[in-house]
Amino acid sequence: MPNRPKSILGQVLTGAILRRSLIVTFIVGSLLNVINQGDSLFTTQPIDWIKLCLTFCVPFLVTTYGAYSALMAQKP
Question: pTM for the whole thing?
Fold first, then answer.
């Protein structure tokens, strides 16, 4: 199979960029969940699981889009 260069989207969703996106997602998503659902997390109030999941999706999408945009700006 020929050695083809990865597409920009393929570069963003693999390797170091994906690892950095996941780290940022964990840190920022956790912080935002504590801010937004602190009452539910630390008391007996029910947790809104949809909001919890979406709160992790947003930083992942923002970080990944930022990396994608930076690579597109460098593309000749």
Answer: 0.78
> Does 5 reside within a domain?
no
Residues 6+ apart with CB under 8 A from 58: 29, 32
- Type of residue found at 23: I
User: How many other CB atoms are found less than 10 A from the CB of residue 8?
Assistant: 16
pLDDT tens, residue by residue, 18-68: 999 999 999 999 999 999 988 888 888 898 999 999 999 999 999 999 988
Distance CA 8, CA 50 (A): 30
Q: How many domains does the chain have?
A: 1
Domain, as residue range, for 16:
10-38+46-74
**Residue 18 within any structural domain of the chain:** yes
CA dihedral 3, 72, 12, 17 (to 10 degrees): 110
Residue 1 in any domain: the answer is no
